Amino acid sequence: MSSNHDIKAHVLACLEARIAGLPLPQYTGDSLVGADLCRERLAGVNLSGVDLTDAQLIDADLTGADLTGADLSGADLSGADLTWAKLTGAKLVGATLMGARLVAATLTDANLTDADLLGADLGGSNMTRANLGGANLYTANISEATLVDANLVGACTTGTDFSWTDLTGAKFSEE
Questions:
Q1: How many CA atoms are closer than 13 Å to the CA of 114, on its beta-carbon side?
Q2: Closest C-alpha to 118, from 137, 91, 144, 131
Q3: What is the pLDDT of residues 123-166, one digit of tens each?
Q4: What CA–CA distances, in Å, run from 35 to 56, 77, 121, 150?
Q5: End-to-end CA gap in the chain
Q6: How many structural domains does the chain have?
Q7: Residue 21 included in any domain
Q8: Closest listed residue to residue 75, CA positions, set 43, 128, 103, 111
Q9: At the N or C end, where does the chain have fewer CB atoms within 10 A?
Q10: Which residues pair with 23 in a beta bridge?
């Protein structure tokens, strides 16, 4: 497992690249399975394709982070800020995102099967073709979002705010 020093060095490299107007470097450290990254400032980092299975990211700042294709299965992202994060094709099976902010996040083709999104804010997010089967969306804000062709079979949507959300082709029950 990579040390927190490795991830912090990567964060610094991403910040330097952003300031210089260069592309963000890809994280090249070892696996981050089970890593403790609670309350870390990871805004804008490129963690695409990285294995973060069972990682602890409680209250982490992942604003604008690129997590495309990352595996966050079983990860705890309670209270994390993922505003504008890119999670296209990410695997968040059984992940905990209670109270997380995913405002304007891109979750196209993401797998959130059995994820706990209790009270999460997904306002304005793009969840086209996302799999939310069995997810807990109790009191989540999903207003002004896009859930075109999303799977919500078995999801708990009690108290969920879907106002002004595009649910074209979204599936809420088995046919």
A1: 6
A2: 137
A3: 999 999 999 999 999 999 999 999 999 999 999 999 999 999 99
A4: 6, 12, 24, 30
A5: 44
A6: 1
A7: no
A8: 111
A9: C
A10: none
**Rounded distance between C-alpha atoms, residue 95 and residue 54, angstroms:** 8
Q: How far is CA 94 from CA 6, 31, 114, 129, 164, in A?
A: 27, 19, 5, 18, 27
Domain coverage including residue 88: 32-175
Alpha carbon distance 17, 35 (integer Å): 24
pLDDT in tens, 46-91: 999 999 999 999 999 999 999 999 999 999 999 999 999 999 999 9
Integer Cα distance of 62 and 83 in angstroms: 7
Residue type for position 144: E
Under a CB-based contact definition with an 8 Å cutoff, are residues 158 and 138 in contact? yes
Is residue 1, in this structure, part of any structural domain at all? no
Task: For residue 173, give the amino acid letter.
Answer: S
Residues 6 or more apart whose CB falls under 8 angstroms from that of 109 comprise 88, 89, 128, 129, 130
Helix (H) or strand (E) holding 159, with range, is none
Instruction: Assign 3 a pLDDT band (cuts: 50, 70, 90).
Output: low
In a domain, 27, yes or no: no
**Cβ-based neighbour number of residue 93 at 10 Å:** 20
pTM of the model: 0.88
Domain of 168: which CATH number? 2.160.20.80
